[in-house]
Write a structure and sequence with these properties.
Helix content is 42%, strand content 20%. It has 244 residues and is of the alpha/beta class. Strands 1, 2, 3, 4, 5, 6, 7 and 8 form an 8-stranded mixed sheet that branches. α3 packs parallel to α5. The longest helix has 16 residues.
């Protein structure tokens, strides 16, 4: 875990600096944080991942210095894979509900979208199923042009996507394209995802990290209250209500 810079500039805390299992956290400045998914071999989402992300979202919500958080992956081929119950569904059930009253996974996604900071998904590799749900919950999505696959495959397996993509995709890409993504249940590469509005834009793979870091560094210098208030005004007309 790369937290030395956070502690040296005074923006760190014991909570941020604690050992994480599936995450690596770097806090290069008080206003900016980088969270790297690191759960070999393919970054599956498990009960441990959900619990750690829920705790992280709580830290993000409470941090008055933080303006922007970037989520990337240590694995160039897998950003986030689908949920894995690890042969023990009781672990997922034991997570319970979060502050919104929703199950922990939905709860952390909803709270991340509404948090008073800018969240950015820097997508390189595959993000399918629950991985796509996390990407959709972030405020901005920048993707590798050559190395991105996004999709919601659940309908092809006989189930309904349950982590919010039905509500989020329709608002992002429109009804027709949302139905195509959900019902055809095929993967979209970077250029197609950009065309559809699934991501804000694609960036050549060799420039993705640099461009996202530059955006994050810029936003980190802004006024925290201005960011929080602007998001608070945009959210009611763009985010799905809890019932959706």
């Amino acid at each position: 875990m790369e937290l030395g810079s956070a502690e040296s500039n005074g923006s760190g805390s014991e909570a941020w600096a604690r050992p994480w299992t599936h995450l690596r956290i770097d806090r290069p400045s008080p206003g900016r944080c980088r969270v790297t998914f690191e759960h070999p071999p393919i970054n599956t989402i498990t009960a441990t991942t959900v619990a750690e992300l829920a705790e992280l979202v709580g830290l993000i919500e409470a941090d008055q210095e933080l303006n922007v958080v970037v989520f990337d992956s240590a694995n160039p081929d897998f950003y986030l894979a689908h949920y894995d119950i690890e042969g023990d569904s009781e672990k997922a059930l034991a997570l319970g509900d979060g502050p919104t009253g929703m199950h922990a996974w939905l709860d952390l996604l909803v709270r991340l979208s509404r948090a008073p900071v800018l969240s950015i998904a820097a997508v390189r590799g595959r993000a399918r199923g629950a991985g796509s749900e996390f990407v959709l919950a972030c405020d901005l999505r920048f993707a590798s042009r050559e190395n991105t696959l996004l999709g919601q495959f659940e309908v092809a397996t006989g189930v309904v996507p349950g982590g919010g993509p039905i509500a989020r995709l329709a608002r992002l890409v429109g009804r027709g394209r949302a139905l195509e993504i959900l019902l055809v249940a095929d993967d979209l590469d970077g250029p197609c995802a950009e065309l559809y509005g699934y991501v804000n834009r694609t960036v050549p793979d060799e420039r993705l990290d640099e461009e996202v870091a530059a955006i994050a560094a810029r936003v980190a210098r802004f006024d925290h209250e201005a960011i929080a208030r602007t998001k608070a005004y945009v959210d009611p007309v763009t985010l799905p209500p809890d019932g959706a």
